[in-house]
Amino acid sequence: MLLFIWNAETVQATPYLPDSDFTVLEHVPQSEDPRVRQLRTARLELSQDPGNLDLAVHLARQLVELGRAEADPRYDGYAQAALQPWWSHSSPPTEVLFIRALLRQRSHHFNEALEDLTRILHNQPKHAQTWLTRAVIHQVRGHYDEARRNCLPLLRLANALISTTCIANVTSLNGQASDSYDGLLKVLSQSPSSDPQENLWTLAVLADIAARRGDTLVAEKHFQQGVSLGVRDINLLGAYSDWLLDQNRPTDVQALLGDDLRSDGLLLRAALAYQQLNSPKLPQAIANLSARFADSRLRGDARHLREEARFTLHL
């Protein structure tokens, strides 16, 4: 990767501190995304009946999924607000406990998330999403044996694609990349899911394994298959962008990401593409990222520390 030396002192941004709690910081445009319109309606309904657990859980789940897909922490805050009447209970309902664990996982409070998930399994040992979430947390922490153990119950609790993807995602990092890839590809070919999001996860894992094995053409095929599903997913776009950057294809990164760079992670990839191109857009991108990371530190938000570290090292 071409290293572009930039004097960071010229682009350091000071976080803006408003004079009043009533100061409008940003006007968010009305989204044409039908999911956002539905959420807006559901939030209005919940505001009129804040004690409606079913409505609150349904809304919070949608918000969590949209926040994951967009890598936008605002939706996590909305989800927590929807569950506020039950959030701090000593024994909240199971679905509240699970969503709380997801939000704690996302904010990197892994120990607290695992505590919530363990409480769920104590009462509902067949809660498949809990096993999957525990596996993901253990994998992120590098506890591969524990991650695989938490995948195994999914063999009887979830469909073949989910359970195999969970296991292959772990074993591919533990000296079994080829076998993991072959087994997962076979299951995807024979038993694709009716849920595009599940297929997308599997394709992302296949692309990652192929990339680590050096199978360039195969990796790109799986990335493109994932994008073609039409499910906007920041993690997939980020992984595909990283792969393109490693191939010294910054123009393709720009084509993939377009102008929608609201996500810090996607703006970082765009900046790295500008760096490879020696683009005049690079200084402004660096300034924007610097300001965003400063704002995150001000909020105590640790979600994007990996992106900030990469920004510091390379930009």
Question: Can you give a write-up of this model?
Answer:
The protein is mostly helical. It has a domain at 240-315. 70% of the residues lie in helices and 0% in strands. The protein has helices at residues 34-48, 53-70, 73-82, 84-87, 94-106, 110-123, 128-140, 144-151, 154-157, 160-171, 177-190, 196-213, 216-228, 234-246, 250-257, 264-277, 282-299, 305-314. Helix 8 (144-151) runs antiparallel to helix 10.
Write the topology of this structure:
Layout: H1 34-48, H2 53-70, H3 73-82, H4 84-87, H5 94-106, H6 110-123, H7 128-140, H8 144-151, H9 154-157, H10 160-171, H11 177-190, H12 196-213, H13 216-228, H14 234-246, H15 250-257, H16 264-277, H17 282-299, H18 305-314
Number of strands: 0
Helix and strand element order: HHHHHHHHHHHHHHHHHH
Strand content: under 5%
* Radius of gyration over all CA atoms, rounded: 21 Å
> What class would the helix/strand composition place it in?
mainly alpha
Q: Give the N-terminus to C-terminus distance in angstroms.
A: 12 Å
Mean pLDDT metric = 88
State the helicity in percent bands: 55-70%
- Number of helical elements: 18
Major sheet: size, sense and barrel closure?
none
Shape: globular
- The poorly predicted ranges are 1-14
Task: Summarize the entry for a quick read.
With 315 residues, the chain is mainly alpha-helical. It has 18 helices and no strands.
